[in-house]
Amino acid sequence: MFVSYGWDSMAHKDAVRSFSNRLRNEGYNAEMDDSLRDKETAIDFTKMIHTHIPQSDKVIIVLSEGYKKKESDFSGGVGKEYLLIVKDIEEHFGLSNIFN
User: Fold this and answer.
1) What band does 35 get if pLDDT is binned at 50, 70 and 90?
2) Among 7, 14, 43, 77, which residue has the fewest nearby CB atoms (within 10 Å)?
3) CB 35 within 8 A of CB 79
């Protein structure tokens, strides 16, 4: 699974990292950008999300006001992740099924 979040603040990022670590401690294969960066120091963020989000069985989105703004504006990493998630939903379920 992949944990998606907006980089709202260091406190928020630390809370998401703690959440992701807890999932791993509970036996889940939870990844987030920081845990992947720890494994590979020169990781390309865009390449990372285009690789890991589609390969993940599940994506957990940690919602926040900052995430919502970036999602709505299609900005930053959140915007890129959101586009990938919507594309996956459309391919597997059809967009009309989301709203019914």
Assistant:
1) low
2) 14
3) no
Q: What is the pLDDT of residue 79?
A: 82
Q: Is 74 left (phi over 0), alpha (psi -120 to 50) or beta?
A: left
Contact, 80 vs 49, CB < 8 A? yes
Question: Tell me, what's the pLDDT at 28?
Answer: 93
Hey, where are the domains in the chain? 2-98
Taking alpha carbons only, the member of 91, 75, 84 closest to residue 54 is: 84
